């Protein structure tokens, strides 16, 4: 039972609800990284429980376009040994065949390639890394003849379950 001194006020309940919603928003926050933006290129992003969406600016013609851009998503701060990165390809619509997105299972172009996406790619689906790092490497010509190039890929922390010994 609440005493009069302990009874929450309307104001107190509103503040508590606002704080709860803010915390939920932080936990489920989603960061968007544009591979054709100078602000986002050549950077490393650490991923925990949130999502990182990798995109391109659809139909945006820039005055001094970037020819290459790489972004590294790093989940190595997660100490769970069963953690991998899950890449969900939500949309791909690339019309210029010189516009190519390569995805590597590691932090540089000498790592194992996971997928290459260009004008011949239309599929969506899910990719998994073997480790906790993935690199997205976009390269494009200086002049795009078909400027409508768009893709969206969501990166999340995934977990690979160990097989149960009773299964064998």
Can you walk through the features of this model?
By secondary structure, the chain is mainly beta. The chain has a single domain (30-161), classed as Sandwich (Jelly Rolls), CATH 2.60.120.290. It contains one helix and ten strands, in the order αββββββββββ. It has a five-stranded mixed β-sheet, with no helix packed on it. It has a five-stranded mixed β-sheet with strand order 2-4-9-6-7, with no helix packed on it. The radius of gyration is 21 Å and the shape is globular. It starts with 9 loop residues before the first helix and ends in a 9-residue tail after the last strand.
List the secondary-structure elements in sequence, H or E.
HEEEEEEEEEE
Subunit organisation of the chains: single chain
Q: Total domains, how many?
A: 1
CATH superfamily: Spermadhesin, CUB domain
What is the CA-atom radius of gyration, in angstroms? 21 Å
Question: Which regions are unreliable across 5 or more consecutive residues at pLDDT < 50?
Answer: 13-27
Class of secondary structure makeup: mainly beta
Strand content: 35-45%
- Which fold name corresponds to the CATH topology? Jelly Rolls
Question: Which descriptor suits the 3D outline?
Answer: globular
In whole angstroms, the N-to-C terminal distance is: 55 Å
What is the CATH architecture annotation? Sandwich
Q: Strand order, biggest sheet?
A: 1-3-10-5-8
Q: Biggest sheet, in brief?
A: 5 strands, mixed
In CATH's first tier, which class applies?
Mainly Beta
Query: What's the mean pLDDT score?
Result: 78
- Number of separate helices: 1
User: What level of helicity do the residues show?
Assistant: 10-25%
Number of beta strands:
10
